Amino acid sequence: DTAVSQTPKYLVTQMGNDKSIKCEQNLGHDTMYWYKQDSKKFLKIMFSYNNKELIINETVPNRFSPKSPDKAHLNLHINSLELGDSAVYFCASSQRDTNTEAFFGQGTRLTVV
Amino acid sequence: GESVGLHLPTLSVQEGDNSIINCAYSNSASDYFIWYKQESGKGPQFIIDIRSNMDKRQGQRVTVLLNKTVKHLSLQIAATQPGDSAVYFCAEKGYGNEKLTFGTGTRLTIIP
Q1: Cα distance from A107 to chain B (closest Cα, Å)?
Q2: Which H or E run contains B38?
């Protein structure tokens, strides 16, 4: 069983389109994250949700809108895609009260053309 | 945005030798540190962690050292194998802070 699963794994789309990436975790964690990894492998946090509530929002354009229907899911919707949005997006989850490691999904490689 | 100006450090090690990957962190309030391994096309995978009340922790073939005085973290991999080739990241977190902040990463290549 995959602990943190993201779909799709690859996404190629044209500028201006709207797309969504889905994430689900079956670890029973209460906190989920979205990270962006650029071409130089730099990993930067975008958002974090705890029990469906937004707790971290790191200067991300408002074209990016996370949605957490329940604590096991955190989806990322991106409006009006731009070339600079091309990157690998990682979902992760952790358990807040244990202050332990975050578990990462396999990533979604987004290419905007 | 993009990590303009930052380059991924690289380290090449002969198979069977030991390797040491270093990381400097900036937040003196961080009290939990993690090393992750990222193989090509995969997500970061947990290797080992250490809390600020320790200065050394050992796992299977890996050892993490923490020097809080100079805010430095290192990962030692003993008897390296080809499967150890990957990008390694250190990450830090403060107590009560959900934000896990990653370092720039180091690409380790094991030479057969």
Answers
A1: 6
A2: strand B30-38
Mean residue pLDDT of chain B comes to 91
Instruction: Find residues 66-105 of chain A whose CB sits inside 8 Å of chain B.
Output: 84, 90, 92, 94, 96, 99-105
Question: Across the interface, which of B41, B46, B99 has its CB nearest the CB of A48?
Answer: B99
Dist CA A25 CA A40 (whole Å): 27
Q: How many angstroms away from the CA of A43 is the closest CA of chain B?
A: 6
Give strand ranges (E) for chain A: 4-7, 10-13, 19-25, 31-37, 43-50, 53-57, 64-70, 73-78, 87-94, 103-104, 108-112
pLDDT digits (tens, 9 = 90+) for A23-82: 999 999 999 999 999 999 999 999 999 988 898 888 789 999 999 999 999 999 999 999
Tokens of A77: 């919707």
Q: What is the pLDDT of residues B21-54, one digit of tens each?
A: 999 998 888 999 999 999 999 999 999 999 999 9
Q: Which residue of A has its CA nearest to B47?
A: A101
Hey, what are B28's tokens? 């003196």
Question: B8-17 burial by CB neighbour count: b if 16+ within 10 A, else e?
Answer: ebeeebeeee
Q: What does the longest C-alpha to C-alpha distance in chain B come to?
A: 43
